[in-house]
Amino acid sequence: MTKMRIALAVAIGVVAVVGAFASGTSETNTQPVTIYFWNTEPTGDRHQGMENIVAKFEQMYPNVKVVQNSLDSTPYLTALRTALFGGGTVDVFKSWAGSRASEIASAGLAADLDSFWKDNQFDTVYNAGVKDVLTYGGKTYYVPFLYRYNPLLWYMPSTLKKYGITSQPKNWAEFDAMLKTLKSNGVYPFALGNKGGGWLAPYLFEPLLIRTGGMTFYKDLISGKVPFTDARVLKAFEIWKQWADNGYFFPDANAYTWTDIEPYWQKEQAAFIPMNDAALSNFHGLNVDVSYMRFPQYSSDVPIGDTMQLYVFGAAANSKHMKESMNLLKLIASVDGQEAYMKASPSLMINPNIPTSMYTDPLQLQLSKDFNATAMSLPIDMGPPQEVGQTFEQALEGWFSSPTMETARAILEKTQATYQSILKKGSN
Amino acid sequence: MKHRYSARLKLTLFIFTVPSLVLFVLFFVYPMIQGVRLSFFDWNGIAPTMRAIRLGNYGELFGDSDFGRAALNNVVWAFEFVLGSTLIGLLLAVLLDLGIRGESVIKTIIYFPLVVSFPVLGAIWTWIYEPQGGLLNSTLRTLGLGFIAKPWLADKNVALLSVAIAGIWRQVGFCMVYFAAGLRGIPREMTDSARIDGAGTMVVYFRIIFPLLSYVFGIVITLTLIQALRAFSIIYVMTAGGPDGATTNLAYFTYIEAFHYFKMGYGSASATILMLVVIALSYPIIKRMLATIYEY
Questions:
Q1: CA-to-CA distance for A135 and A110, rounded, in angstroms?
Q2: Residue B243: is the preceding peptide bond cis (ω within 30°)?
Q3: Which residues of A touch B45 (CB under 8 A)?
Q4: Cβ within 8 Å, pair B46-A103
Q5: Are B89 and B227 in contact (CB under 8 A)?
Q6: A108 vs B48: CB contact, 8 Å cut-off?
Q7: Which residue of A140, A244, A384, B69 is most buried, as measured by CB atoms within 10 A?
Q8: What's the first-to-final CA gap in chain A, in angstroms?
Q9: Do B47 and A106 count as a contact with CB atoms less than 8 A apart?
Q10: Residue A363 near chain B (CB below 8 Å)
Q11: Does the beta-carbon distance from B154 to A254 stay under 8 Å?
Q12: Testing the interface with B: which of A71, A254, A266, A402 to mutate, by most B Cβ within 10 A?
């Protein structure tokens, strides 16, 4: 009896293994396939944008069903990393160019897209700068999707007009004069909503670093080649210190998020909200006439450069449906895919072949032109390891409680010590 | 008196315990052991290899000024939170024990914050503390005390206390319920006879009632202390540990290290230390509770 039971168990096992193997190998393009698509667009028009891409893809490949796993961006990265490492159901996933994407690639969890880029001739579509931030250790692992233009100063033209400011400053002297005019009329120039970890303060700080020190210096800084204690970083802090001394910041920056501070901006108690282009739809929702300003050149020999977040997509290295995953990536990087997203969620798409007619908002169209004409780099909280960026951001929060050069030096020393310790560990 | 159970009853009891025991081991003991094990490695959560560094994470933790500040914040927070919640909870329980009309309605109102979710609590208190038009500063200005007004959650010097006050508001109902139950359990004859013997109200409370409540004090203080040490959500929703780490405690520090910086070993070491502190503090009360159960 026992022998019979064992024989039966072995037979069932063999049938199960053979069956599983057979189903894995005999798969053809016409058989139904499900792929899992991870992104950070759980609600609203951004989710609809992703739905549009999925609908288009499923129309192109009727045998493929795409299941979206859309999470809020805060828990997303932890959930994604866990799923990728644990061999969970991830085929195509979103990430952010910089340390977040590179860590996943370095761990061998993202598929190598070198030949995919070559086959689809993406080198002829995207410039070397874009490819550069998607390439780690000589291999390209991601395709680009959209970008967020970070350091923008949003204002209501009516506020500035009241004080005779009818055109944007062309140089730093004019910019300075404009800030003085606003303050002398009782308007705080900057409504910085820095609550929640201090992530917004760099939107005011990074452009100063680039304007005063240049883009090469900034890139060297975020890659760890130049220390944060460099005199050029302190110079940017000196400008901030002057602004703080002049009372240019709306009080208690750390008590507000950028949306908390909007009512004061709307009441014209403050002139500029520093925020990236994602704010545009929010301002439209407020029904206010809005425009944006970029920091002008600090000196004529240092060209303008800015920072951007770049949303990217990759395929899981262990995807069971690599061909289908690649097809989805191809659509995501294409004009068709990015247009499908834009229809639901007007955004700044990275594909340069997107027709300008797709930018129905004149401000977005202008932003895309500015982007194409400007040297761009990753922000401090995306380029270097996350700990460096967040240490810096958190320390900047402290600066608003005590805006002195001593605090500035302490911030820079702490950030540099964090970076040094990470670089040291990496080299061990 | 120690009970003697038959072998059959013991087996039955064991069988009934097995399902929950399996779940407990699977989802609590095993992850806890893994967490402790992880604390001896340098690992980012996704790298194919984990680098064994023995006590390296612990050594680094004790030299990390951010960890030191988080531990200190935890001590200050625990002191404010436990003291505030216990004293106010006791005071309310005593007042309600005097036989006020509508006692159960008042109790429900005081208990209500405990069922409020943390995001709602965060929204309420962020509005109260809003520097320009918030309830607190507006009231202070109306009363001519505008000089006290400040950005309560954005000022490094008062942010921790401000969050603690919100926490106390939530915890008071919990403490009050325990004290109220304890007060109900004290036989009236004891206090009545003391009064007949000439004892004043203060003597009755401090010499008879409060000593008889010592067991309840133990439970309330221990449970509130554990709550204070593990506090996370309230900090997450109100300040995200800021400004500049002023409200970061050990639980929040652990979260940031493990799930923002992905220093899994380092975060696990911090979590292990926190766990040991919680176990050490809760051990006496658990031991006492088990002993009490044994006596019945």
A1: 12
A2: yes
A3: 81-82, 85
A4: yes
A5: no
A6: yes
A7: A384
A8: 60
A9: yes
A10: no
A11: yes
A12: A254
Confidence of residue A21 (pLDDT cuts 50, 70, 90): very low
Residue of A85, A252, A385 lying closest to B154 (CB–CB): A252
Residue in the block written with tokens 């949306």: A259
Residue A371 CB neighbours (<10 A):
17
- pLDDT value at residue B133: 86
Angle formed by the axes of helices A386-401 and A99-106, to 10°?
Answer: 150
Locate the chain B residue with the closest alpha carbon to A391.
Answer: B244
Tell me which amino acid residue B220 is.
V
Contacts of A78 in chain B (CB under 8 A): 259
Instruction: For residue A261, give every residue at least 6 positions away whose Cβ sits within 8 Å of its Cβ, in sequence order, or none.
Output: A191, A192, A193, A250, A270, A273
Q: Which residues of A touch B130 (CB under 8 A)?
A: 255, 260
Closest-CA distance, A77 to chain B, in angstroms, reads 8
Q: Do A426 and A227 form a contact (C-beta atoms < 8 A)?
A: no
Q: Is residue A85 within 8 angstroms of chain B, CB to CB? A: yes
pLDDT tens digits, one per residue of B107-118? 999 999 999 998
Q: Could you say which of A264, A385, A401 has the minimum Cβ distance to residue B243?
A: A401
Contacts B44 to A, Cβ<8 Å? 103, 107
Q: Which amino acid is at A423?
A: L
Residue of chain B minimizing CA distance to A76: B259
Model pLDDT, residue A31: 86
Tally of residues, chain A: 428
DSSP B127-192: HHH-TTT-HHHHHHHHTT-GGG---TTT-TTTHHHHHHHHHHHHHHHHHHHHHHHHHHTS-HHHHH
Note whether B224 and B171 are within 8 A (CB): yes
Strands A305-315 and A92-96: antiparallel
Range A395-398, long-range pairs (CB < 8 A, 24+ positions): A395/A198, A395/B244, A396/A194, A396/A198, A396/A201, A396/A202, A396/A205, A397/A194, A397/A197, A397/A198, A397/A201, A397/A254, A397/B242, A397/B243, A397/B244, A398/B156, A398/B243, A398/B244, A398/B245
What are A191-210's pLDDT values in tens digits?
999 998 889 999 999 999 99
Distance between CA atoms of B289 and B215, rounded to whole angstroms? 10
State how far the alpha carbon of A355 is from the alpha carbons of A143, A350, B42, B140, B174, in Å. Answer: 19, 12, 48, 57, 61
